[in-house]
Amino acid sequence: MYHFRSLIMQKVTKEHIEKLTDYLWEIPTSFRKDMLVPARILASEQILDDIIEDRSLNQLVNVATLPGIRKASLVMPDVHEGYGFPIGGVAATSYPDGAISPGGIGYDINCGVRLLTSSLKMKDIKEDLEALGKELYAKIPSGMGKGGQIRVFSEQMDEVLHRGAEWGVKQGYGHKDDLAYIESKGRLAWADPSCVSQMAKNRGTDQLGTIGSGNHFVEVDVVEEIYDNESAKAYGLHKNQIVVMIHTGSRGLGHQVATDYIRIMINAMQKYGIKLPDRELACVPFNSEEGQNYFKAMCAAANYAWCNRQIISWEVRNAWETLFGKEKGQLRLMYDVAHNIAKVEDHVINGKNERVIVHRKGATRAFGPNFEELPDAYIAVGQPVIIPGSMGTCSYVLAGTTKSYDITFGSCCHGAGRRLSRTAAKKQVNAPVLKEQLRERGIFIEAGSFKGIAEEAPIAYKDVNSVVDTVNISGIAKKVAKIKPLVVVKG
Amino acid sequence: MIYEYLSHTADVALKVEGASLKELFKNGLKGMNDILKEGFCGKVNRFDSQMTIEITSANRTNLLIDFLSEVLALTNVQKSIYCGVYFCYISDTKLVAQLYGTWFGNFDEDIKGITYHEAYIHRNEDGNLETCIIFDL
After folding, report:
1. CA-to-CA distance for A303 and A100, rounded, in angstroms?
2. Domain of A130?
3. Residue A227 maps to a domain
4. Quick one: which of A433, A435, A477, A480 could link to A231 by a disulfide (CB 3.0–4.6 Å)?
5. Interface subset of B 39-68, CB within 8 angstroms of A
6. ipTM of the prediction greater than 0.85, yes or no
7. How far apart are the CA of B116 and the nearest CA of chain A, in angstroms?
8. Active site residue A255
């Protein structure tokens, strides 16, 4: 048996954890000398018992050692073991001299989810589901190797990196109205394309409008249940409505930005006297030259991701129109949220307003009502939070709350969270059988390979209902609607 | 066994072995290529492209991760899987290598990143160099 290096460290057990409330737990700084703040876990006791099984809490303790970290390192109930940061983690560091860590954002910068709503109901498309799956699969390239239909070079690429979703709209890939319904309006102004390497730009040349592989997908769902009428009405959601969910990120361009800067930071840390328990936590002060360059490159990659999801929406809209015609074929963008990103935000810490750099790795921003960036229709109910489950279960739309500011720096979970490795899932799942079982339940899968289906099988994920119930009861977000998959398109 | 898959919730973990640094790096590349497109290199009978790369890193573990990251980036840009590698020079902190690639259709898997997490080159009980590599998929 191979012994992972991280096993050398003292494993967090339940004895090390203090209960703060029924849904908030803490590993105090006394657990390890190098912790600068406590580590907190948002979970029910049952979920906590599962989380303890892997090494995600040790990784959370490692995050608590980041220079300039404020208040606490945090994980959401969908947390699972990652590399460096756990997936489902949140860390806020002091602005402007606290750490910025590419590992706290992840390789897929601005991986995120968007939801489009239609005017169709279940009865309108019941007979067309299989054809819809094939049409979507034909219109949306996976981009795994061959690339997509769109090519952007030099100045055009810089425009994409500067303008994000706005570039897509300007080129005709969507409506101007879409932009108001995207986190940060689909563009981070700090972006500087000159901080993005040529290799990263080359990797992004032919990947706009592509979903990639892994857990990325385009999914057609039906709204199965409404929990909060006021929020649902504001978001334009109603029972039996057909909606479309898109999950992908910045593709090879973002992966390369992360790779480039983790390498730069590993080499630069010594200069700033930074020592960390894991190289994947590599960081530098935000206001250092390396920190600023990374942040500007990360913003550029985030813009690329928003542009990518904008173009995929255009591809989905094309497929929709082909099948349902112009009149019934309209799809409105409900919202688009990032779950791998760092943002400069103001939060109250120990009663004082502080500017911090919030790292969200597998965590969604979940701001409450009266947040000025939100479109008028959403101001009173808060920011939509989109939580995908797995291909055979269900997903949720939630609304952000003001309580989330106090507990999680305005953050929430991002999905169900993996419970099985891909290798284990492949061993346990017979993909052709699963595809047929899902089809019998009215869920049509179009995928590039059976391997991809097996890796993303429902059994590979935690119970999304428990995860969402936890964030709902803890008050960091409230349930608005449950949606059920009908068609799943994967790379 | 030159490499084997280990169970890791995050993504894919490989244990790689080699009698020398050169062999360890070659086996790491084989493992990565098999994740990208299983069995592809075993069927290759021609090379379509050739590249020379030079990499400098702080130590041999970082050098391996940086080498694989560079090859992965080139694979994506050049649409070639580099099944052939010849090390013109290799030490603990620097390498110069010629890569020989073959054009492919689609990947089986899209590797997002090759992480330093858990990577540590050391001698195992058999006297071989060994490390774990975690790939973010």
Report:
1. 19
2. 5-419+461-490
3. yes
4. A480
5. 58, 62, 66
6. yes
7. 6
8. no
